[in-house]
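Data deposition worksheet. Section B asks for the primary sequence of the deposited chain exactly as it was used as input, without tags or linkers unless they were present during the calculation. Section C holds the resulting structure in token form. Section D is free text for depositor observations; keep each observation to a single sentence. Incomplete worksheets are returned to the depositor.
Section A, Depositor: J.P.
Section B:
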Amino acid sequence: MQNIKNLRWSVLLLLLALNFGCDQISKKIARTEISDYEHISIIKDRFTLTRVENTGAFLSLGDQMPYFFRLIILTGLPLLFLCYGLYYLFAKKNLPVTMQVALCFLIGGGIGNLYDRIIYGSVTDFMHMDFYIFQTGVFNFADISIMIGIGILLFQSIKSNATKQHIDQEQLDHNAD
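Section C:
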């Protein structure tokens, strides 16, 4: 039983480290190889690299707030949520595997962006996509990790709701017989 617990912890820590590590390595490369606001076309102007130092949150929201409020809202609150997320991930023994993986993506990405904010005073964003009818903001691998985590949780929620509705319908049909 202890071996299973150790294996679970090891896998979760590995997933967290991979999310954080990929994010930080990519940002280090972006900081050294891409000049501020340089525009590098990767796929016919549909996928480009453009380095931006984001002092705000998602899409630079809040970057005009006074420093004290930015410190609380963009550093303090995420730190509290990430600490709670880590506690929840490691303390809850019966979490579904999909939720554990989703939390690793969310927390790993969150730690990556929080680390940047604390160490550099801003988050390095450097990827941009243009899908003809809409464009993304400039983002990084931590943002991708966070979106993957949200996607997994959303998929799991929809799947469990569909399963619950199916079971409820079967019980109604059985009771009607």
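Section D:
The helical segments are 2-33, 67-91, 97-120, 141-176.
The chain has one domain: 2-176.
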